[in-house]
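Re: the 395-residue chain
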Amino acid sequence: MNEVELVNLARSHYSEEQVALLEKAIHYATDKHDGQLRKSGEPYITHPLQVAAMLIDWGMDIDSVIAGVLHDTVEDTDATLEEITELFGRDIAFLVDGVTKVSQARAGMKNLESYLPSTTDNLTKLLIAVGQDVRVIIIKLADRLHNMQTLQFKSPEKQKKIARETLDVFAPLADRLNMGRLRVQLEELSFKYLMPEEYNQTVALKDSRLKKSQRKLDAVRRAVDSRLSDEKIQHQIDGRVKSTYSLYKKMKRVPNIDDIYDLIALRIIVDDIDTCYLVLNELHNMYEPMVGRIKDYISKPKPNGYQSLHTTVVTKNGQAVEFQIRTREMHDYAERGLAASFHYNEQKLTDAYIKGKMTSLPTDLHWIKHLQSAASMIREGKDFDVDNLKVDLFG
């Protein structure tokens, strides 16, 4: 990713005025990082540009994208927060400051175990400190994904340490934000570095199983597609293969891969909620539903906001097939999570916002609301016992 590519990408998402400010940030960051190199030997600026590109892909607002370009300037160059505020405004400076605090807090933790999920106090305190704006965490997740994608240039010791941190901290955070696609990317990369032998074995087993079942699954997909079309139901149907790491974890409980019914799922996307239930009824008229395998996450979403109908049916040839039925909006949220539904473009950095009183969240993510409340108390100098924070950051 270079400057021209990033600017061209941004032009299809933001106004000319916003793109002009992005270009200004790129020139500023390029100047500040001049002479710095990544472990790969590439100019350092390639990293923040790639982070910004990810944020665009996730549907983030322009302030987040610009903060992605600038996120390492205060920590790694002679840039100051005051200078960034003057050049790019308080909102962007606020985000850069938040990402810098995340990095500094992590660096100050003597050992990694002090903020792994088993002992989350330090991470919880850290997130409270920046909890008033979830965009800080999303920018940090983009930063971590690119670092994982270029992990081959680190020493084996660093690779395992960073991969362990990613699997135990950042992947669960992505899951709590319902950023499913990102969670899978982080888990797959971590698994590959932490347990290469198990990773390769699981990939081989999965590929072998897919070859056996693909033809039968294609026949089911065609049959369902035809049935829904005959019923004049607008829909999109495609397949989803279980990730390697998720399969590895499941096989610890279900050793026989033939007993794992959701290795491949057919995903049906429709226009509205009523049609979701209509499709579910059509599937159950076509095939025998498996008892205990029908889950309604639409009427009762998961804690991270995920919504979908799940059902597993048995076809006439005895094959078990899982279906996931959802609207387009639900699908976008399942893939990109909170990043897909935040609308910060209209927000201003008001006094209320600075004190942690954000606008209502797009989904009922109570853990973020608790985090914001705790952040507000800390900023106002009130005593706060982190043990009383009713937040399960890791699911």
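Residues 180 and 335 are 5 Å apart (CA to CA).
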